[in-house]
Design goal:
Keywords: Cell membrane, Chaperone, Membrane, Transmembrane, Transmembrane helix. The protein is mostly helical. The chain has a single domain, classed as Serine Threonine Protein Phosphatase 5, Tetratricopeptide repeat (Alpha Horseshoe). About 80% of the residues lie in helices and about 0% in strands. The protein is built from 9 helices and no strands. α1 packs across α2. The longest helix has about 55 residues. About 10% of the residues have low confidence.
Length: about 200
């Protein structure tokens, strides 16, 4: 199982956007937090902490040795609990685990990612990947439950396709047909071709 190009690009876009804009976001939070006191306290602490996490994360993902990188990522997640960079690190851990077909480890990392994600985009990406991993492990009902966490509309098609695949595997052809037909509405030409193949095989 490999993640789609769309999923990978979405994560890279999120990382780039966050790296470029986190100071502005924190400043906006500070201004709403409590005037001058809020500004002096949070500017001095939160911006420094976020910059530190950003720098550390970027150093870790450059490590070539997978075992060492995963060890550092695990430590990073522990020290940066419930931050955007912790979610990035968990997604990276899961990706490494999937590459070696260690789906149990990937599932654990993705469950943590869904629990820590603070926005719909990261939650949706994490949940979609979690459902894919659970599908690989034949945890079909768990995968369908995970797909319920996919809230961002950008992932509606991927959600419908995976839902259809799970339903088909479970033998529910009628439900699978409905899911595939829903995905067809906004599918790309390439997606339309293999969705039609799926429908023809029902």
């Amino acid at each position: 199982m490999a993640y789609t190009a769309e999923e990978e690009q979405e994560i890279e876009d999120i990382k780039s956007w966050w790296h470029e804009n986190y100071k502005v976001i924190i400043a906006a939070l500070v201004l709403g937090f409590g005037g001058a006191w809020g500004w002096h306290y949070w500017q001095g602490y939160q911006v420094t902490q976020t910059h530190k996490a950003s720098s550390e994360y970027e150093q870790i993902v450059m490590i070539q040795d997978a075992t060492q990188r995963d060890s550092r990522l695990a430590e990073f997640v522990k020290n940066n609990d419930k931050t955007t960079y912790a979610v990035f690190a968990l997604l990276d851990q899961a990706k490494d685990a999937v590459a070696t077909k260690d789906f149990a480890t990937a599932e654990n990392a993705l469950k943590q990612a869904t629990a820590q994600a603070q926005d719909d985009v990261l939650l949706s990406v994490s949940a979609l990947r979690l459902a894919s991993v659970q599908y690989q492990q034949k945890q079909y009902d768990a995968a369908l439950d995970s797909l319920k966490l996919v809230k961002n509309s950008s992932w509606d098609n991927q959600k419908s396709i995976l839902t259809g695949d799970i339903q088909f595997t479970k033998g529910d052809n009628a439900a699978a047909k409905a899911s595939y037909e829903q995905a067809l509405v906004k599918a790309t030409p390439v997606e339309q071709q293999w969705l039609q193949l799926r429908l023809n095989n029902l």
